[in-house]
Request: fold
Amino acid sequence: MRIAVVGATGNAGTAVLRELHLRPEVTSVIGIARRLPDTDTEPYSHPEWATIDIQFPESRESLAQAFQDADAVIHLAWLIQPNSERELLRRVNVDGTRHVLEAAAEAGVERIAVASSVGAYSPVDDDEPRREDWPTEGIPGSHYSVDKAAQERVLDEFETAHPGIALARLRPGLIFQGCAGSEIQRYFAGRWAPVQVLDAVRPPVVPLPRGVRAQAVHAADVASAYAEAVIRGAHGPFNIAADDLLDAQRLAQIVSGGRGRAVVLPSRPLRTAMRAAHRARLLPADEGWLDMGMKAPIMDTSRAREELGWRPRRSAADAAESLLQGMAQGEGAASLPMRPRSGPRVDPTPLPTRDHQLPRDLDADLLRQYMADHLTGATAGVERIEAMAEAYSDTPVFPELSKVAEEIRREHTFLQKLMASQDFPRPGASSALAWVGEKAARLKPYGRAPLNRSPSELLLECELMSSAITAKMHGWLVLQEHAEELGMDEAVFAQLVEDAEEQLTTLREAHRHVRERAFRNRPDALPE
Reply:
């Protein structure tokens, strides 16, 4: 079989690639994502790859071409953040599902498995296990649940229109694995949550909302279910979860390392606090996730066992523990959604050792100041380019622009490490001021609310960022001239110069996209 995996770089997608590589029935895989992973790294090195943004109607043609020789499609793509961009989430998640299904039908694909969720189910007030015939109207207040329910209606329509296609919809519980630790932290707890301490210290008391309970499953077990669904040509819905239930006391034991207890809190004030923290941008997850955790039904998984021959190999508690360890250690994988907390190195070439000595004919003070000035500029540049990528998240240039943002963050880390290897002190107040200045620079009166990012501001930011990357490129050229004296391979800086040139090309494309629309007098001028 040749299988196409849409959304192959996220939590479930990464596990599915591992599973398919082990299956003797699978001869080839094509991975499809908005942003390509590092294809030299497992498990991303085996598939063929295509970059397609499924939110746009025109993506159907590209998808159909990618599906031409496929025997089956596994559709996993789902955008969780940003919570506030409801139109974007609906376009990617619900419309994107429709585009994938239509393209698969056009390409003659006869087997499809789609990622639904326990979140698609209507709310309950008890712990009685529900089979797959429980209504899928979603849980009000949870954007994730509402959109999963809307996706179910798309699947219903497709089944009616294409009764000859074997369409399986899998409804897993929470999906955990160690290498998803950094991704799940970013999506739900936030970049600054002190999860690192869990590696050394576990809390003796864990506050949890009254009535919380959840079903979870290890990503490897979910991947096995998707593989079975398309290999067997399964049809219809399947609940997927481990056997054990994670209630408040069990969750507290896992978080505390088996020595603590839960302190049960009323859910209503906790929901209010969660809402306030999310509105203040202190917490990425909104209160809808709590609503879903309190109201989603417990699933009966017997159908998956009977018709797919599926059995979970790991308990929900084991999956949750592996996730906590992954969060504490900042684990990840070599894709942008799954990137580890620290980010990958720019180049595998080792940095100089701490005892490396600069030659005496080189003015170390001048070189230190030069590198410090570039690092100060890079600190502001990282914040600016990441904000730009977010602003373009619903445009065709987003995949490449977000790739630039990730590259610039890695380069910033590389420059910090390079300075440390030369025993150069990091810039202090200047770097902090650059960060503050970048934030303040967003308060510009471009005819809209001061904190909103207007089209004209995006145009200027493209231009300013292009200038910054040009300056950075010249900085790499200077360091390339002194690579031997710094104890570095000259090829490292040559690659960084080449990367900067590609980044400039991406920004020119983003600039073209904005300037064609920036001054049009219509509300939908940006984005398109």
Remarks:
- The chain has 16 helices and 13 strands.
- The first strand starts at residue 2 and ends at 6.
- The CA atoms of residues 483 and 490 lie 5 Å apart.
- The chain has a mean pLDDT of 87.
